[in-house]
């Protein structure tokens, strides 16, 4: 009989109508009742860690969740985290790095509509999360939502209203779930390089910038003294402008100042290759670190986790470009 710990953090799934709109307010007894309705030969314990709209979720909250799981890893077979959808992808990625060495199934789920509403996706997602936690037997962090399981470093919220809110970007779905039936999509193994150290440190001092035609290079001057890492969502295959408004020179200046600059793409799928075009090669030569086909949620969480361990540019680049928890297929 599998023993599962459910950690509640708030989110839409636990929201109720309040004076200023929907906000987390469901009691633990109410939430646990929905889980126990689908309980088949499982021992389920419940704990409330926080009661937040996920918009208010911070990297420090990832540490709270990760610490609770680490402290209870010997007591439970699997863990389920109920969470809001808006920052679920960031939390899933953050936990994937903080808990990369944990040999347990960790499931994150939530809903687009509160569980207490008559028409809701929450009950299906709860049932699917329990099925996956009980039957998958896979180590790692997974988002379970609308009948699919997604590796935690690849989950991106695509829709604000529809039940199929999440998509697995640049990586196959791990499994499909229908009621109590789990179908694994392909053989799956945990991806943890042997040299990785366990680290429960996070440095949130990173800045994410989406470039656009007309962006002034002066913004980069401000970043030198106010952030420890920069992530740039570039055009296409990783190109940055170097004519008129020269951003490439600013990348070189940031790197010389000891600030790592991670280059990703605004294109959601297929990643980038900075070796194809001159605009990409110049950015790479200036010190820009390519992130290949990683998604932005994973890059943000990974860089925060890396900066919690080191300030050395060479080590930052090595860790960013090391596949961890299937976050990166190529660079």
From TrEMBL:
Residues 205-319 form the Asparaginase/glutaminase C-terminal domain. Keywords: Hydrolase, Signal. One of its GO terms (molecular function) is asparaginase activity. InterPro entries: AsnA_fam, Asp/glu_Ase-like_sf, Asparaginase/glutaminase-like, Asparaginase/glutaminase_AS1, Asparaginase_C, L-asparaginase_C, L-asparaginase_I, L-asparaginase_N. The active site is at 12. Its EC number is 3.5.1.1. Residues 3-186 form the L-asparaginase N-terminal domain. It holds the Pfam family Asparaginase. SUPFAM superfamilies: Glutaminase/Asparaginase (SSF53774). SMART domains: Asparaginase (SM00870). It comes from the Bacteria. Residues 1-19 form the signal peptide. Belongs to the asparaginase 1 family. This is asparaginase.
């Amino acid at each position: 009989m599998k023993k599962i710990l459910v950690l509640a953090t708030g989110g839409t799934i636990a929201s109720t109508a309040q004076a200023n709109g929907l906000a987390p307010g469901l009691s633990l007894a109410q939430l646990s009742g929905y889980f126990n309705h689908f309980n088949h030969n499982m021992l389920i314990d419940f704990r409330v860690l926080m009661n937040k709209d996920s918009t208010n979720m911070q990297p420090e909250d990832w540490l709270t969740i990760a610490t609770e799981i680490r402290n209870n890893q010997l007591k439970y077979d699997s863990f389920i985290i109920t969470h809001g959808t808006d920052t679920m992808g960031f939390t899933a990625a953050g936990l994937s790095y903080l808990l990369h060495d944990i040999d347990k199934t960790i499931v994150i789920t939530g809903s687009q509509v509160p569980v207490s509403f008559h028409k809701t996706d929450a009950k299906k997602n709860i049932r699917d999360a329990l099925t996956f936690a009980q039957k998958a037997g896979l180590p790692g962090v997974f988002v379970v939502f609308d009948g699919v399981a997604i590796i935690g470093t690849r989950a991106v919220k695509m829709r604000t209203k529809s039940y199929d809110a999440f998509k697995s970007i640049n990586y196959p779905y791990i499994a499909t779930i229908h009621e109590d039936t789990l179908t694994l999509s392909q053989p799956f193994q945990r991806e943890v390089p042997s040299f990785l150290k366990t680290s429960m440190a996070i440095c949130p001092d990173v800045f994410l910038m989406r470039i656009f035609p007309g962006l002034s290079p002066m913004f980069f001057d401000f970043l030198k003294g106010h952030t420890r890492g920069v992530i740039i969502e570039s055009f296409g295959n990783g190109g940055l402008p170097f004519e008129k408004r020269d951003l490439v020179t600013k990348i070189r200046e940031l790197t010389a100042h000891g600030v790592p600059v991670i280059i990703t793409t605004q294109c959601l799928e297929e990643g980038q290759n900075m070796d194809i075009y001159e605009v990409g090669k110049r950015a790479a030569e200036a010190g820009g670190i390519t992130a290949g086909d990683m998604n932005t949620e994973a890059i943000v969480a990974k860089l925060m986790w890396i900066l919690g361990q080191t300030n050395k540019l060479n080590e930052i680049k090595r860790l960013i470009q090391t596949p961890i928890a299937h976050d990166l297929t190529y660079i």
